[in-house]
Amino acid sequence: MQQVFHNFKVFMKQAWEIERRYFLYLFLSFVGIVIFSYYTIQTPKIVLDMIESSEIDIYKVLGIFMVLMVSALLWSYSKVLYTPIGHKIRYRYLLQISEQYISIPYEKYDDPKIQSDVWKIMRPVSSIDGVQAFYTNIALFVGNLGIFFVSIGILLKIQWWISAMIFIWFGFYTALSIKAANKVDEETNKNIHLRREEWYLDDIAVDVAYGKEIRVFQLQRWLENKLITLHDNLNILTRKNETTYIIPEIANDIFQFIRDSLIYVFLITLYFKKQISIGEFTSYSVLILQLNSALMAGTENIKQILSKHDNYKKMIDFINIPKQSNEGRPIDFNQKWTIEFNDVWFKYPECENWIYENLNFTIEKGKKIAIVGLNGVGKTTLLKLLLRLYRPTKGTITLNGIDIWEYKLDDYFELFAPVFQEINIFPFTIVENMSFGRQVSKESILRAIEDSGLKTDELNNGDLDSTYMTRYIHSDGLNLSGGQSQKFVTARAFASKRPIYILDEPTSALDAVAEYDFYYKIDEIMKEHTVLFVSHRLASTQFCNEIVLIENGTIAEKGTHKELLDKSGRYSELFKVQAKYYQSGEAI
Amino acid sequence: MKEKYNIFLFFIRLVRKMRPNIFILRGIYSIFKTLEILLIMYIPSMVILLLSNNFTYEKIIMYILGTLALLLALRIGNKILNRNAFINEEKFSQEFLRDISNKIVNVPFSQIEDSEFIAKKEEALFPIKTQGTIENLFRTVPTIVQATIILISVLSILLVYEPILMVFSILLAGISFGLCRSMINHEAKTALRSARQNKEYVYYLRVMRSSEIAKDVRIYKMQPFFIKKLASLFGWYVQDARELYRSREFRGLINQVLSVILLGTIYGYLISKVFSSSISGAVFILLVNATVNFNSQINVFLSELLLLNQQIIYLKPLMEFYDLIETKNYKGNIVLEDKIESMEFRDVFFKYPRTDEYVLKGCSFKIDCSENLSIVGRNGSGKTTIIKLLSRLYKPQSGEIFVNGINIQEYEEKSYLKQLSIIFQDFKTFSYSIRENIVLDKDFDDNKLNDALEKSELKKELDPLPKGVETKLSRHDDQDTISLSKGQEQKLVIARSIYEEGSLIILDEPTASLDPIAEEEVYRHFKSITNNKLAIFISHRLSSCRFSDKIIYLSEGKVSESGNHYDLMKLGGDYAGLFNLQASKYR
């Protein structure tokens, strides 16, 4: 209950900040509905009285008519005004969730638990049924409260036990309904992975890369069976949820039967005792029915307002996670600097195996370092540690002797221009793909594109502002081939003008000539820069002045290409494995 | 109107095809629900009737309790019927979505690459997924039927007592309908506009959920940029929705005002009648109740009718989408039972849809007798296109492709594709267990799986995992899952292609992410993988060509050089140039 109260406060505060008028509309709606329902209930009685006394007051009748008209207008028009507000606030929350989601530290983001939590967190704002319904129902509830007060005033005049019975049941039924709604919500949360899977299957059906796989491997049936299993599970859930919902409703039907029987028996008895007339009989029964329907509608509203608060709380808590701090020491970019890994140990959370044990390693300004090693030795992990995406489990990484985690995050990121293996091109213009809102001159973008090996005629003649990439959003967008795409994201790194390039297999999709050109130019392009280079093609590491071979969680060999070859160690072994195919001679 | 009728029929046919029992359930439900509503309306009048007709106390009580018990039975029965109908409707929705998904995975590949097709799909499914179109249709149609029956019964009461009131009620209902009509159309248009923007939102969701993009987003500080885009998109949403909600609520306002007018008029009319003593007080109450009921039912009727209209407008893109779906027009019916022993491209010309330039311009080559072929060429020379044609994802504009001497279009698709084992350059893994990723939909055989794991070098990657091959590569289920590195994924798809046991193996850059040792191992196994089979190998690492019986060099959409490694080196052409360029760094 405390949680509900807390959420309620937060939601009301949000409404106050975004649309203060919401509260005015609530008030108008309340006033309108109180007057309207009072006169709707009273009118038959007033008219009956007039008929019985045979005295007609035309002004009174017209007056009531006008009051009904005005109050109906007030009530309906405030509804016109407040209904969109819930929608607006819902999208405000969705934006806040998105902002948080896209900004949470990578370490947390990478945790699968967060990923499934976000699905739950988004639930209150991903359909009308949630935050939006909350705001609408608050308003409707305020209206029902009006009817409720009016009915109470009139009902107190009738038998107290009828009113008491209706009220007690109302409380009981509301509690049952809320409990049912919460149970359904919890069940739905527990099975949220089914929705994720459904989304995933829907997604891959239209994905181009999956499209080939699905067709060639004839996976259509396989995927359909996946969906059938998934839907069977969803059906079990639906069945369960529908049963949960229907129980309080059937209980309510039974109650209504008992209530109606008691009321009619009571009223008929009164009639036979000649205590009431037929007219009174009718208006009493109309009144009781009206009260009942107002209360039942109120139950629906209260249910909407009081249920789902676990999810609301999750959502509010998520939004309130403090942003990754951007406080810390500033970095002077012109200074000479060194980055050092000091006795770094690392393992992924909840993993047994150490990826790194006692890693020591230095990066100096202007150096070009190649990181080589077998698949799975943790080359990418090393980059993640360096990029502050993960924290070392033990040991420190320092920049000029100070822990990298003590620097201002924005400044620190500003040091690195990574090109990861995953090639991401976004459905925006070329300029936007290169700059993402930062100030970057067109000349430097064109320069970066040229350096990456892309020709401007491959990019719509270099029309940077109005050429959209990919066809995902813009149907006339530009699709690049694999090799072109790789050059394109390399250009993005170049355009950022950051001092340290991190190149993870930057030429894996390029042909031999393009690759050769890339490494041929690299000295020229990266003269001033520090480079960390990851590649399995050992021949391309030759432009680097230091090669680091990682094995068994630590650095096994270090030196220049020539030194390591002369040493005849592991590196030279690996090199020879690759090189033998390029020697002239007999078949192998 | 005719169009809307057709859309409605289209929907009805879908239901009839998938879940015809919904009609029965909803039919029975409609009848009983109408009875329930009429009974609720009738009970007060019945009581008055009983009271004024001098029945005995016991008899009246018995009648009333009996009627209330009947009402209770109807209520409970209707709830249960409704629940069962709802569960069936859910099943229909699922079957319907599966049907669509099934159709999508079966359309020709060119449609998947056509972004307009995908956009149409988003547009068609958006209202179904977010506006509850199907649920609404299932709700509105029976409600309209109920409302119609109730209206007719109320109208007949009015007709018996006061025909003028009936005419007046119908008149006001007509006005209300007329005022709302244009608003409804406007609402439907606005809703459709929002639907079009949805694909943008779906894209942003994907950006947020993609761990591949997450690193870039953080380090290049793209967050403000994306949030700005998202905020402006939401701005549109909110604006559209405001229009939509206001219009919808405004209709409610019109109805409310009209109902007050109706009520006022009826009161005025009846009061004057009472004074002229032509009706009694009791009949007055009955008539008031009847008109109030008429008014509320006409509101239900109209708003449900308009809702139906709107949902039908929403269904229009779906029908258009169904029309867009192409079925593969391969008429081939020759079942390929033997292994593939020869393959030939004869003068093949091909360009992608919506482009002008031919990728292949008269490409011809041939392999047979379990030869290994390497295809070499610069980026964009059409190497991958050859695979797409061979796997029948596309059809050449002219020229022919033969397998075992028969044009591949003549083969029955399933048996033909079964003979192919392909690793695409942009291969994908599925978020299910490793075993499922390898075995896919084929029969599971432990020995075969082990063999595939050994030869692909995946086995030693799995050793440290407690659950081994059963470990999930899941993105939607968060327990005991791992994410593989690019190199490990590559080993996995190699294992998949070994398990596939096709007789024509096609490998497009299969070792791009492998370390030298793993690459060497794959090369070493290559002979046994492709033993007695045709194999096509595409790689920028020309080292792989040393194994090939035959190499073709693609340039300008044609085969410009062909032969084995030594022939081509001796020739000293483009291939030799490329090889020497790469080799220069290894010498």
Uncertain runs of chain B: none
Gap between N and C termini of chain B: 78 Å
Helix content of chain A: 55-70%
Give the assembly state of these chains.
Answer: heterodimer
Mean of pLDDT of chain A: 86
Q: Please tell me what the overall shape of chain A is.
A: elongated
> What is the number of helices of chain B?
19
> Termini of chain A, distance in Å?
76 Å
- What is the overall shape of chain B? elongated
CATH architecture of the largest domain in chain A: Up-down Bundle
Structure in words:
With 588 residues, chain A is an alpha/beta fold. Chain A folds into 3 domains: 2-200 and 236-319, Up-down Bundle (ABC transporter transmembrane region fold), CATH 1.20.1560.10; 337-415 and 505-556, 3-Layer(aba) Sandwich (Rossmann fold); 425-497, no CATH class. In chain A, 62% of the residues lie in helices and 10% in strands. In chain A, strands 6-7-8-3-9-10 form a 6-stranded mixed beta sheet, sandwiched between helices. A 4-stranded antiparallel beta sheet of chain A has the order 2-1-4-5, with no helix packed on it. In chain A, α2 (21-53) runs parallel beside α6, α8 packs across α10 and α19 crosses α20 (570-579). The longest helix of chain A is centred in the middle third of the chain and has 53 residues, at 220-272. The model of chain A has no long low-confidence stretch (mean pLDDT 86). By secondary structure, chain B is α/β, with parallel strands linked by helices. Helix content of chain B is 65%, strand content 10%. Chain B has helices at 2-18, 21-52, 57-106, 109-112, 115-130, 133-161, 163-209, 211-219, 223-275, 281-324, 383-390, 413-418, 434-439, 446-455, 459-462, 486-500, 516-529, 565-571, 574-583; strands at 342-350, 360-368, 372-377, 398-403, 406-407, 420-423, 504-508, 534-538, 550-555, 558-563. In chain B, the strands form 2 sheets. Chain B has a 6-stranded mixed beta sheet with strand order 6-7-8-3-9-10. In chain B, β4 and β5 form a beta hairpin. In chain B, α6 packs antiparallel against α10 (281-324), α9 (223-275) runs antiparallel to α10 (281-324) and α18 packs across α19 (574-583). Chain B starts with a helix and ends with a helix.
